[in-house]
Amino acid sequence: MAGSIFVLQEDGTLDALCEQPYASEALLQRLLAKYPDLLAGDQMNADDPPRWLLVARETGIPLEDGGGEWMSLDHLFLDQDGVPTLVEVKRSTDVRIRREVVGQMLDYASHAVAFWTVDAMRARFADTCEAQRCNPDEALAAFLTLDPDDGAALDAFWQQVGTNLRTGRIRLLFVADVIPSPLLRVIEFLNRFMDPVQVLGVEVHQYVGDGLQTLVPRLVGDTAATQGKSARTTRPSRQWDEESFFAALRVGHGDEACGVARRMLEWATPRATRVFWGKGTQNGSFVPVLRHRGADHQLFAVWTSGTVELYFQYYQYKEPFADEGKRRELLARVNAIDGVEVPADAIARRPGISLHTLRGAALEAFLAVYQWVIDEILAT
Predict the structure, then answer these.
(1) What is the per-residue pLDDT across 358-368, written as a single tens digit (0 to 9) for each?
(2) Residues 145 and 77 sit within 8 Å (Cβ to Cβ)
(3) Tally of domains in the chain
(4) Collapsing DSSP states into helix, strand and coil, what is residue 362?
(5) 50 within a domain of the structure (yes/no)
(6) Which domain holds residue 44?
(7) pTM
(8) FRET partner for 172 with CA separation of 20 to 30 A, picked from 66, 266, 355, 362?
(9) How many CB atoms lie within 10 A of CB 360?
(10) From start to end of 262-311, where are the E strands?
(11) What is the DSSP string of 54-87?
């Protein structure tokens, strides 16, 4: 697309903006992080274009399960369906764009699908939000047009991210000022044969002149043979209720887990303001929500996967558990339950406890802890 574009001024003059390469790869990377619409989502699907949520720049990827992060991806985005989108940026003048970048991207993708965890991804997103001085739940809720206090819906989104990772439903984007023809042929080949992975290229052309800078994204690699293929998930969400929840939990984890979850629900119903039933595509959940002084406090979430999640990640933004010392006191009370061992660094995350651990006296001790939580909230 070398050449010029023209700006027609109000006085009738025509000013030419000439295409120029980027001064550095880092400049293009910064532009993508700040203006993710440059990734040409509207050209991928005009009817329902993917929108982009930046998880992190320079995202580390482990080489083995539980290992330290080694490889560094340029950008990690999520779209509104929780599809991880891996972005590698190169300038056309970089000789590595023709061969090395393909092997590099496939290396990243294979290890990401195998070893990335949703917890690690959420932590990266939280770090990005902290650097931008915003609350991660509020940022995600704004992106998804959800209520930031609807913790169950936000959890369902992250759960979908995990499902997409496990099934290889990801998107790989090669981004440059110009995609050379050898790389374009590779992109078209991979996009055709790597189902369900979507592989595309995005050229972001830069035109400058007379103090103006114009950026023009163009999607490449979406051939007639692959048009309509999408890394977006099409499975509809499911509205869970008490009957469907316990039916699924019984099938997956038996009567004992159902008994524990049933006791939690019966305990929570008269104490909570409401019980929220989730909309997960695969796993159901219920969340007791206590509303106090205009704020919703999600107490915990019980899942058909056989776990109860403690919502430390959300506690930290609301009184009285915004105080770290208060969260550590809660952690100590939880860890005093027989068989429960939640790590110390979980006070900013959502640790899970197996329902099978919470039997008999352990279950009653757990409920006593959450009676204390309710009392502390109501005392504020």
Answers:
(1) 999 999 999 99
(2) no
(3) 2
(4) helix
(5) yes
(6) 4-220
(7) 0.61
(8) 66
(9) 9
(10) 274-277, 285-292, 295-298, 300-303, 307-310
(11) EEEEEEEEESSTTPPEEEEEEEEEE-TT--EEEE
